[in-house]
TrEMBL record:
Binds 2 heme groups. Heme c 1 binds at residues 64, 67-68. It is found in: Periplasm. Binds 2 heme groups per subunit. It comes from the Bacteria. Heme c 2 binds at residues 212, 215-216. It holds the Pfam family CCP_MauG. This is Cytochrome-c peroxidase. The keyword Signal applies. It comes from Flavivirga aquatica. The lineage of its organism: Bacteria, Pseudomonadati, Bacteroidota, Flavobacteriia, Flavobacteriales.
């Protein structure tokens, strides 16, 4: 009988730091990255593969990427996304970018998810999205010829469970950083804006005109959202309770998360229910289409007049500015395409 001194090598995943854009470093805090799910090369790669793989759905036809397409800044062009077996939800798919800077860690339009990892957990079992169970998904992944080894490399175990699946997807989603719009380049002194775009920015920042910055930030907030929930005057009678259905507080009825104004050129239709097909429709809503209700946000100061009543030229200039927030480099980033 002989003894072997041969050592069994354990694969150690390699750390991968997020590439923080300069404007983010200058103006906002560090990204939110949980200590129990640090970014690694292997974890990100695994999360990307899972994001594009329909194996997460009950009948292997529906992937995360089907409702969150790169060319649309990781949303889609339908008012309500087409899920498994042709089922439709009741909300418009939210775009996915700059998720690591969501400091309140509340995701979805109604804030029902408490972390990016939890956000990735819910669609799998939603009957209108992937319609599966985590037991079924875990079994399929465990029997797959590649995934056990990929989980071993990313997390040090080949035993696959929902926690590790969602950790991997969250790692990939945190890499979806959008920071190279025309307006970003303008702030960095790399380009100039037209007179119309500059006037549109001034309208955006003017409390007596556009008054947009309270909910969507300013040139000092590269996220272009406050990530807070507001009732922005869409309906007099509220049928979709939004945040109110989650908190149980009637004062929250009709409140939805302010989306980022980045990438508007790619993310139509707009609002939580996709009711507005065009950016012109959105601007017209705030200009003369506001509707009062019991939970209307105090920031909608001119609701009694129906809105801020912009001139046709001001509307055109505001639209011109908003489109400067679109990041064409982001939607063409080869790091985000299907593996």
């Amino acid at each position: 009988m002989s003894c072997s001194n041969e050592k069994i090598e354990t694969y150690v995943s390699k750390p991968s730091l997020l590439q923080i854009p300069k404007l983010f470093e200058d103006n906002i805090l560090a990204p939110v990255i949980p200590n129990n799910n640090l970014q690694t090369i292997e974890g990100i790669s695994l999360g990307k593969k899972l994001f594009f793989d329909p194996i997460l759905s009950a009948n292997n036809t529906q992937a995360c990427a089907d409702c969150h397409a790169l060319e649309n800044a990781f949303t889609d062009t339908d008012r309500f996304s087409d899920g498994i077996n042709g089922a439709f939800g009741k909300r418009n798919s939210m775009p996915l970018f700059n998720l690591a800077w969501n400091y309140d860690e509340k995701f979805f339009w109604d804030g029902r998810s408490f972390s990016l990892e939890h956000q990735a957990f819910l669609p799998v079992t939603d009957p209108n999205e992937m319609g599966s169970t985590w037991i079924q998904v875990e079994e399929k992944l465990q029997q797959h010829p590649e995934y056990p080894e990929l989980f071993q490399q990313a997390f040090g175990t080949s035993t696959i469970d929902s926690t590790l699946v969602t950790k991997a997807i969250a790692q990939f989603e945190r890499t979806l950083i959008s920071s190279n719009s025309k307006f970003d380049k303008y702030l960095l002194g790399e380009t100039s804006l037209t007179a119309e775009e500059l006037n549109g920015f001034n309208i955006f920042m003017d409390e007596t005109r556009g008054d947009c910055f309270h909910c969507h930030g300013s040139d000092k907030n590269p996220l272009w959202t406050d990530n807070i929930f507001h009732n922005n005057g869409l309906d007099t009678v509220i049928t979709d309770l939004g945040l109110g259905a989650i908190t149980g507080d009637p004062a929250d009825n009709g409140k939805f998360k302010s989306p980022s104004l980045r990438n508007l050129a790619f993310t139509a239709p707009y609002m939580h229910d996709g009711r507005f097909k065009t950016l012109n429709d959105v601007i017209n809503h705030y200009s003369e289409g506001l509707k009062n209700s019991t939970t209307i946000d105090p920031l909608m100061k001119k609701v009694a007049q129906g809105g801020v009543h912009l001139t046709p030229q001001d509307k055109a200039d505001l639209k011109a500015f908003l489109l400067t927030l679109s990041d064409y480099e982001f939607i063409n980033n080869l790091n985000f395409i299907k593996p």
